[in-house]
């Protein structure tokens, strides 16, 4: 019977994995939830889940010791790792260094604990950045066989770094790997702010508090184009299936809901939910708080431009916001309004500061579609 280890277990993806695994106790005899925080898990995790508080940037010896203490070394159960740990960083170089270290340290800890001989597969959770969506327009739909986005002006991609670590460390061993590549993940984890839904909810709530309309924060092309999303529950179910399916050996997979969404249909629903209005002529009005961020390198689509007949017609590679959420979150009236909302509703008063406004600017301020299949 298999044993599961989930890293990043308090995040959106990790928590969905924990909940899905724990709902099938006949298959999964042991479930270990790895996270940095030594928090009380009585309400966060189901009763059949063991919490392993671990700092994956700590010493490998400490990781090995903690795993050995928690996981029965006398058992013959096969071990499957679901790696969903992630630490946001200021630059892509740091992102690669830190998140690469998370994975390498953990796998070396597994080896040091004497558990590698039982390890069968590591399932790595990645995302749309695998295709370079943060670098500009991509070929759509994105497909698993598309080449990696590399070049002299392209920063390191931490997903490539992590996948390379898996390839390197699994070579000659009895275990293998597979990679899941979801779109923007729809889910919830308490206290996790790497979540566009949290940013939008704060923005809409403050707009209502201030009596302001809900201006779309991106641009007209982005408002009317398509995106692909992934339910956290669907991603978890897929990754568990992929872990146990022999045919998923050393493969990567797109995992999306199968439907496409556009802001022109979602934004009015958000406005209705929060009880705010959208200006009927919002794209004719002057931008309330504009922000434009030029992306230094060519967009990933440029690598396909010659064979697609798109040479010389690709747009300027930039994120274009009608409401720059980074600037918006620094407004004094916004800070005051959020403080009042948080106090009245019993919410975290630091949520405005901790929300990932840069990420929200990128996801909402892009002008191009992201669709995978």
TrEMBL record:
It comes from the Eukaryota. This is NAD dependent epimerase/dehydratase family protein. InterPro entries: NAD(P)-bd_dom_sf, PRISE-like_Rossmann-fold. PANTHER family: 3-OXO-DELTA(4,5)-STEROID 5-BETA-REDUCTASE. Pfam families: PRISE. Residues 4-277 form the PRISE-like Rossmann-fold domain. Signal peptide: none annotated. Gene3D superfamilies: NAD(P)-binding Rossmann-like Domain (3.40.50.720).
